[in-house]
């Protein structure tokens, strides 16, 4: 996912001030607008590719320069003693190089009096343009003033940066909590969407089904639209089951008018439910994987949605829409798009005007609203801020309902009618509010702070306060609470475990380790204590010791799939692949629907030489999670290794459609080339090159395919650009072949000569050189090359044949 502002820095130079700057920028512009590696790289992502993508696509790059930025040097390796910029693979160097283009703004941030490095020195690394950029000071002792000036500069530089919302005055504590909460939620997975459509009046069920079939939900320009009517065929019978976020299938229900009282709508659920002839609304919950939105699984990835919207058929407005809302839901969040707030009245006006046009003979067209992904994220962020509601606002009330025995339930909109309590129907139910309440963390934090003022030695209050702080993402304050709890009760293993977890989230593994160790010492029979301790050791690279604790956790709780998976991980990282298979297999037996565990078992079996046994597991992983590009890539790669390129192409095409990256297009292109589907292979390699233009081999692969297609000059240009990236003997050899095909024999001689300078004894390159020399009439030199080639590869029949033909030719005989 690309961001507008990219923060480039060196960890050992300015890590602390960058952390503060990152938080400030996120609070000002929204987390999704800012890219810093530590806060935006989720577990399991391809981090080099993600950094490169964001550096290329950002509008503004902030290069944070401290006093050690230029001098920080290598302590070992071939660049020992040299500043890190000397390494072409230095990420700071690569980031800045990608951003120094005419369409981007690069702003050096000079921290605490740091100076801009000398222009001539920067020219050694191709970064001399950086010295031409006006630096902006950022002083830690006058941070707020300098940051305010930076914000003004950023807004002047780019008019597209999100505008912050103006929260209510006097709510600073709640605003800070909301920002921390928003930052914390960014990488949480999306579990599904919930849709509610309430009509102003009743309609026939048949007519409403037709209208729902014409009501469409879109996510991106390229993805297929979802018709709400489709969901009825995928779900159990309507109104027979209450919605639950645990379900893996859509659930649908119809609403009716609540006839005893005006202004209320009702939804009745019963296992034997019989739909009425007339209805006045519809709701559904759809698990996120069923929507098949490419590349979007987490909250922050909503920014990738290029065209999120809903469109209604014009005839829907003949009845009128009372309320329409879509909720994006996760384990810890629920954010809504409410058309009452975003133009429902305007849609009715549009429908009225269209109705006039239809009467005059015009064709009906759908009516709807659309948002970009960034707009959605800003709307969701704003929902966390404190704000006022109008007293008569129905959304301020929410839905309420009650449940009865035997799976019965009743839910009302906008709230429960006052007279329902006195109705005979009320006796069929017992009160259970069906709308889950959000945690009011700000209020609870105040309560526990008050308890601690009254009793500063209350360990339990410290722990609960720490948990609330973690809920808001306030990890530093959580740690302070846990430190106080440890002082009050130093032998509480749960407190030490919580402390370790908080420190790990901050990346402070060395500090977390003693707390996990104490938790294990205090409760040696607690499996989770060993698992947490082992995970911390593993992250610190202490694999052998981590293995001991993972093995202990498995012995204590052998039926917990998580412990088996941890043991598999440690053994795999110790290169003990055969031993890792047993816990991997056990993890799958305990949790057969965990796609990741299933896939990893397949990988281990393949590494152990059991390819036939591995394949069913890899195939099952793609069935369990059909939206995982990684699993489809894994399957495609395995099929290609087995020579099943036709099936491999199908899997790799799915992978590139779900989540395109350069490597996946490389694999796809290779299988298409094996099938001699050259135009498709060319398109795949070109797509890979657009996503990863800096790869040498990717250019060579495309050149080979273009050679097959007769595009010799294009192939030559690709080989020359590949050599600029990296000098490789085989690439010079290919370039020589291409020059020869184009009749440019002098250039072919130079290229093949350079290939032998890099690899003087390579039999293929020697034979390649011989072909060029023979074409130039230099038969004796060609024969010499072929003889050297045979010395290196005496069994090569092709070279024997070339030598025989050359020596038999008139030119060869006369020279001999």
């Amino acid at each position: 996912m690309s961001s507008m502002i990219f923060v480039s820095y060196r960890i050992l130079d300015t890590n602390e001030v960058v952390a503060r700057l990152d938080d400030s920028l996120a609070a000002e512009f929204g987390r999704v607008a800012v890219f810093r590696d530590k806060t935006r790289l989720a577990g399991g992502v391809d981090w080099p590719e993600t950094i490169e993508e964001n550096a290329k696509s950002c509008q503004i790059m902030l290069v944070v320069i401290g006093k050690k930025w230029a001098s920080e040097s290598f302590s070992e390796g071939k660049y020992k003693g040299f500043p890190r910029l000397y390494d072409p693979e230095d990420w700071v160097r690569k980031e800045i190089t990608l951003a120094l283009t005419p369409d981007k703004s690069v702003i050096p941030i000079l921290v605490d009096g740091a100076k801009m490095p000398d222009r001539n020195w920067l020219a050694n690394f191709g970064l001399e343009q950086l010295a031409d950029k006006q630096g902006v000071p950022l002083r830690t002792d006058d941070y707020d003033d300098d940051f305010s000036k930076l914000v003004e500069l950023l807004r002047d530089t780019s008019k597209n940066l999100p505008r912050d919302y103006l929260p209510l005055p006097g709510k600073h504590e709640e605003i800070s909590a909301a920002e921390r909460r928003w930052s914390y939620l960014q990488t949480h997975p999306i579990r599904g969407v919930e849709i509610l459509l309430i009509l102003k009046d009743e309609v026939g069920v048949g007519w409403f089904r037709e209208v729902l079939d014409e009501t469409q939900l879109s996510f991106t320009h390229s993805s297929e639209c979802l018709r709400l009517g489709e969901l009825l065929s995928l779900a159990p019978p309507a109104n027979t089951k209450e919605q639950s976020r645990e379900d893996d299938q859509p659930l649908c229900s119809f609403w009716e008018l609540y006839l005893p009282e005006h202004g209320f709508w009702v939804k009745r659920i019963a296992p034997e439910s019989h739909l009425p002839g007339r209805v006045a609304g519809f709701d559904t919950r759809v698990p996120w994987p069923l929507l098949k939105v490419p590349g979007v699984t987490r909250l922050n990835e909503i920014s990738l949605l290029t065209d999120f919207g809903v469109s209604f058929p014009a005839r829907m407005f003949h009845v009128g829409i009372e309320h329409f809302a879509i909720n994006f839901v996760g384990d810890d969040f629920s954010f809504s798009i409410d058309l009452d707030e975003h133009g429902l009245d305007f849609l009715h006006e549009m429908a009225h005007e269209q109705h006039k046009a239809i009467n005059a003979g015009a064709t009906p067209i759908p009516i709807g609203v659309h948002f970009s992904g960034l707009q959605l994220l800003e709307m969701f962020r704003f929902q966390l801020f404190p704000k006022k509601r109008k007293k008569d606002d129905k959304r301020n009330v929410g839905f309420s309902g009650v449940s009865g025995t035997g799976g019965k339930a009743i839910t009302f909109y906008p709230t429960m009618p006052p007279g329902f309590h006195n109705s005979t129907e009320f006796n069929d139910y017992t009160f259970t509010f069906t709308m889950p309440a959000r945690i009011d963390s700000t209020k609870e934090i105040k309560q526990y702070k008050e308890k601690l003022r009254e009793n500063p030695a209350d360990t339990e209050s410290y722990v609960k306060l720490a948990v609330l702080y973690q809920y808001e993402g306030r990890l530093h304050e959580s740690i302070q609470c846990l430190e106080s709890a440890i002082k009050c009760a130093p032998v509480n293993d749960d407190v030490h475990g919580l402390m370790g977890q908080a420190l790990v989230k901050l990346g402070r593994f060395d500090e977390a380790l003693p707390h996990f160790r104490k938790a294990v010492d205090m409760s040696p029979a607690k499996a989770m204590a060993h698992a947490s301790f082992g995970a911390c050791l593993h992250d610190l690279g202490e694999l052998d010791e981590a293995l001991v604790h993972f093995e202990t956790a498995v012995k204590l709780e052998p039926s917990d799939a998580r412990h088996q998976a941890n043991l598999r991980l440690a053994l795999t990282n110790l290169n003990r692949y055969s031993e890792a298979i047993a816990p991997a297999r056990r993890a799958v037996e305990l949790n057969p629907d965990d796609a990741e565990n299933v896939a990893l078992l397949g990988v281990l079996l393949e590494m152990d030489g059991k390819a036939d046994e591995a394949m069913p597991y890899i195939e099952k992983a793609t069935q369990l999670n059909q939206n995982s590009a990684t699993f489809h890539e894994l399957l495609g790669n395995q099929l290609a290794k087995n020579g099943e390129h036709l099936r491999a192409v199908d899997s790799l095409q799915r992978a590139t459609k779900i989540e395109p990256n350069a490597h996946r297009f490389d694999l796809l292109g290779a299988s298409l080339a094996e099938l001699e589907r050259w135009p498709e292979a060319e398109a795949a390699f070109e797509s890979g090159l657009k996503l990863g233009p800096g790869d040498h081999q990717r250019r060579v692969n495309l050149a080979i395919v273009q050679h097959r297609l007769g595009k010799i000059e294009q192939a030559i240009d690709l080989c020359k650009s590949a050599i600029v990236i990296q000098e490789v003997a085989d690439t010079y050899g290919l370039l020589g072949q291409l020059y020869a095909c184009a009749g440019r024999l002098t250039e072919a001689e130079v290229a093949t000569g350079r290939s032998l300078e890099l690899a003087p004894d390579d039999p293929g390159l020697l034979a390649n050189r011989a072909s060029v020399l023979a074409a130039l009439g230099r038969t004796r030199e060609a024969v010499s090359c072929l003889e050297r080639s045979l010395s290196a590869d005496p069994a090569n029949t092709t070279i024997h044949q070339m030598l025989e033909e050359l020596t038999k030719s008139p030119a060869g005989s006369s020279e001999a």
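Confidence is low (pLDDT under 50) at residues 164-172, 388-398, 431-438. The two ends are 66 Å apart (CA to CA).
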